[in-house]
Amino acid sequence: MRIALLEDDESTADIVQHWLEEKSNVCHIYRDGPALLNALTQDSYDLLILDWELPTTTGIEVTKNIREKYGYNTPILFTTGRNSEEDIVTALESGADDYLIKPVRKAELFARVKALIRRFTQSVNNHAIIKYDPYSLDANTFTVSHGNQAVTLTAKEFELAEFLFRNQGRILSRGHILESVWGQRSDLNTRTVDTHISLLRKKLMINPENGWRLNTIYRHGYRLEKLSMIPSEAI
Question: Residue 152 and which of 70, 103, 188, 198 are 20 to 30 A apart at CA?
Answer without folding.
Answer: 188
